[in-house]
Design a protein that fits this description.
The chain has 325 residues and is an alpha/beta fold. It has helices at 3-18, 24-27, 44-60, 75-82, 97-105, 140-149, 164-176, 188-196, 207-215, 263-277, 280-287, 298-318, and strands spanning 33-37, 64-68, 90-95, 116-126, 128-131, 155-158, 181-184, 202-203, 220-224, 250-258, 292-293. Helix 3 crosses helix 10. Mean pLDDT is 92; it is low at 5-25.
């Protein structure tokens, strides 16, 4: 008889552990969590990964460790995470490249929607249309007029085929009905260098990359993407203000995990990230890359990803842009 209470207690413990919502989900995370950054250390992607890791380590009482995995335009990191166990211990900084423009212009070895769990949007930075100071324009209307009156005189720089700065400029060309020749570079850095030197006349980089040169008056800002003016460039209108609606695309960054992650882990991560996004300290840190917080629920973030892929896929088809040709 003395063994019956012990056996009964053991049975109750086992039964409680099997109840949904209890057990592992309640205590997540019980071991270190890896956040894969699909780029080398340094730059906006790495900043997002390390900032989120630091915030979650503090708020969740467990180590969140950044692992940089570069190569293939983010495809190597994306495939690694898509194949990881969906237990919440392998996450990734998903961004407009891995989960927006790349799937729109090339065959990637993963499904950016079906192979991932959308966890939390972190934030985004607009693209800014800039011209070399020698170009005699002050706004979008005068730029379009100048381009149409001077065919062959303007070229624009891109950081590579299918990048957001390339697709955004193609979107503008289609909307405005003018044509300029594109010069592709291997990265935004060389593209900016040649614009500063006057070898090209216009481009549409992310605001963080352009801002130092705008402040030094080596680039002239004409318009920004997004739904409202950016606080760092309050005098520069949006495309919509200038008569070109639909230019609300941004360089965005979020946190994703493998498909079929536990809902409890996803919701807790989302809640902690959104809580951090509300803090002034994090606002200030993200501002160093001109990134504005964009808190969303997991469902909203998943819908956002699908819409972004659809947006750029449609443009790529219309403009015949593909990296697989």
């Amino acid at each position: 008889m003395s063994g019956r209470p012990i056996a009964l207690a053991a049975s109750l413990v086992a039964a409680v552990a099997l109840l949904p919502g209890l057990g592992a989900a309640q205590t997540y995370p019980v071991k270190p969590v890896k956040i894969v950054v699909p780029a080398q250390p340094g730059g906006g992607l790495d900043l997002i990964g390390r900032t989120v890791a630091e915030q979650l380590s503090r708020s969740m009482g467990q180590s969140f460790i950044v692992e940089n995995v570069s190569g293939g335009g983010g495809a190597i990191a994306s495939l690694q995470v898509a194949r990881a166990a969906p237990d919440g211990y392998t996450l990734m900084v998903g961004y407009v490249g891995t989960h927006g423009t790349n799937p729109a212009v090339r065959k990637v070895p993963y499904d950016a929607v079906k192979d991932f769990t959308a966890i939390a949007m972190v934030g985004g930075t607009p693209n800014v249309l800039v011209v070399h100071p020698s170009v005699p324009v002050t706004d979008l209307k005068s730029l379009v007029d100048y381009a149409k009156k001077n065919p062959g005189k303007l070229t624009y720089a891109s950081g590579g085929i299918g990048t957001l700065n390339h697709l955004a400029m193609e979107q503008f060309k289609a909307a405005a009905g003018f044509d300029v020749v594109v010069v592709h570079y291997r990265g935004i850095g060389p593209a900016i260098t040649d614009l500063l030197g006057g070898q090209t006349q216009m481009m549409m980089p992310g605001l963080a990359a352009a801002l130092p040169h705008i402040r030094a008056k080596k680039m002239k800002p004409i318009a920004v993407t997004g739904l409202k003016r950016h606080p760092l460039l309050p005098d520069v209108p949006t495309f919509e203000e200038s008569g070109f609606p639909g230019f609300d695309g941004v360089q965005w960054y979020g946190i994703v995990g493998p498909a079929k992650m536990p809902a409890e882990a996803t919701q807790r991560l989302n809640a902690e990230i959104n809580k951090a996004l509300a803090s002034p300290a994090l606002h200030e840190r993200l501002a160093s890359e001109a990134i504005g917080p964009m808190p969303m629920t997991p469902a909203q973030f998943g819908t956002f990803i699908q819409a972004d892929i659809a947006r750029w896929s449609t443009l790529a088809r219309e403009r015949n842009i593909s990296l697989d040709d």
